[in-house]
Amino acid sequence: MRTHIGQWLAEESLAKPPAVYEIELRERMIRLEEELKNQRELIKQGFDLMEKRFEVVDRRFEAMSAENNKRFEAMDRRFEVIDKRFEAMDRRFEAMSAENNKRFEAMDKRFEAMDKRFEAMDKRFEAMSVENNKRFEAMDKRFEAMDRRFEAMSAENNKHFEAMDRRFEAMSAENNRRFEAMDRRFEAMSAENNRRFEALTKRIDRLMYWSLGITVGTGSLVVAALKVLL
Fold this sequence. Notes:
transmembrane helix, transmembrane, about 95% helix, mainly alpha, membrane, 2 helices
């Protein structure tokens, strides 16, 4: 295939002869090999740089892991201290729970005693309620008897008040007649007094005229006497 590839390509190429085309093909192959060689060197350099970077990263990770180990050791020591504190707290809580249990037991006993007392009080209240019910029933009967008495008394009082109303009506009619007679008397007296006041007014008017005449006459006499004397 390698032997005949130049001939085949030359036969396919109509512009150049086979010898020229073979030379160009070899030149291209040489340039391609050189380019591939350069690419290999670049790839090798890239891998070398990557290895160096990975080494740096590994050293960083080792330093970080060492630092983290130190930190985790410090955290472990702190957690140990915290565990000891929690153990002490657990012991305290156990003691407190035991003390609280004793106190709650004492409180339960007290509540039981209180329950018994309340039961006794309930029994007493029941007996008192029965006794009070009996007393209230007796009081209801008494109030019913009192209601009947008040009804009888109210009926009797209604009769008395009706009789009194009739008496007051008769008295009011009599008083009305008397007041009407008194009104007629006062009207007659007022008419008589009016006539008397009119006569008195006339007399006073006459007296005023008479006194005025005397005053005028006396004044004229005094004036005449003064004229004679002067």
